[in-house]
Amino acid sequence: MLSASDSEVLLRLAERGCTVRLRQLGTPSRLSLIQGILDRPGYGLLSRGENHLTVCQTLKFDLVGTEGRWITAITIEAEDRSVLLQDGSSVPACEISYDQSKNSIRLGHTVIPL
Fold first, then answer.
1. Taken in order 16, 88, 96, 100, is the CA torsion positive or negative?
2. How far apart are CA 18 and CA 15, in angstroms?
3. 41 lies in a domain?
C-alpha cells in the first residue's frame, strides 16, 4: 500500500508498475485498515481453498447516517497517472470527479450519469 486516507487508497501492482486508486467520491466515509488474525474470525482473512485461511489486510469504509451516496471509483493508472478509457483515449486521474448536483461522474470530457 502506498497511502491510505478516508477518501483515497493507493496500491501498487508490483508486476506491472501500475497504481490502483480507490476514491470515495460521494458522502464522506471513514477508512479502517484491519489486519487479520488467524484465530479470530472476521475481517482480514482470505480463504484460498477448503480449510485454508490466509491473513490479509482489509480496507473497510464506513458510512454513517440516514442518507448518503456511496460512490467508489476504482482506477488502474499508468506510471504517468493516466487512466485508459474504453474508447482508447486516456484521461489524467485528477480529472475524474463526481458532480453531486447532476449525480454524474466526469472523466475529462466524458460525463456518466448515475
1. negative
2. 8
3. no
26: number of Cβ within 10 Å: 16
26 found inside a domain: yes
Domain range holding 25?
3-31+59-113
Q: Residues 77, 21: contact at Cβ < 8 Å?
A: yes
* SS3 state at 27: coil
Taking the model in full, what pTM does it have?
0.76
Q: How far is CA 101 from the centre of its chain?
A: 22
Within-domain flag for 40? no
Q: What is the pLDDT of residue 43?
A: 93
Instruction: Express each pLDDT in 57-95 by its tens digit.
Output: 999 999 888 888 888 888 888 888 888 777 777 888 888
Domain membership flag for residue 42: no
Model pLDDT, residue 95 = 82
Say if residue 20's pLDDT is above 80: yes
Nearest to 83 by CA among 107, 56, 111: 107
